[in-house]
Amino acid sequence: MSDIIEPKGAFPRVAAILLAVGLVLIGTMMAKSEEFICSPMTGQLVTADGGPAGGVSITREWFAGGKSGRDTAKTDAEGRFAFAAVHPKQSLLSWLPGEKAVRQVFSADLDTGRFEFLDVHSRGYGRNAETGGKDFNMRCRIGVTPGKGDVGWGTCTLIE
């Protein structure tokens, strides 16, 4: 005869199922913290002749899964700027499978008007998905005609 007492009723089974679901959700939320709508980005804005474009306001707009956002930065005296990472919000809908396409548009607020210097698309929420895994560190020119670049459309090249 065994000294183990088996619980009776459905409650222990339901509790075990709820505990398992909870552990799966916690694991999924932890994995989501490693996802990026926008990777951290650093760059330098320069003029057509290569001199630093200091004191310029820069806007990053992003679009992903029906959501969008915008943030701004200002270049320092050397034309350097940075944007922080944007992580997806945690929701039950974010766990559903589907394509994770992201578009980011970077523009400079110049005396002559708004100048888009980078338009980049990525698939997936991996870090540096925008650049194929390389650090998202760019040198971008103002006062030149945008075209196909190292990353997306614009005036930018990757800085190694």
Structure write-up:
14% of the residues lie in helices and 37% in strands. The strands form 2 sheets. Strands 3-2-5-6-9-8 form a 6-stranded antiparallel β-sheet, with no helix packed on it. The protein has a 4-stranded mixed β-sheet with strand order 4-1-7-10, with no helix packed on it. The chain has 1 helix and 10 strands, in the order αββββββββββ. The termini are far apart. It has 160 residues and is mostly beta strands. The protein has a single domain (41-158), classed as Immunoglobulin-like. It has one helix at 11-32; strands spanning 41-46, 57-64, 67-74, 80-83, 101-110, 113-123, 137-141, 147-148, 153-154, 156-158. A hairpin with a 4-residue loop joins β8 and β9 (153-154). Pfam families: DUF6795. This is DUF6795 domain-containing protein. It comes from Tritonibacter multivorans. InterPro entries: DUF6795.
CATH class category name: Mainly Beta
Residue stretches low in confidence (pLDDT < 50, at least 5 long) are: 25-32
How many structural domains are formed by the residues? 1
**Broad shape:** elongated
The helix fraction, in percent, is 10-25%
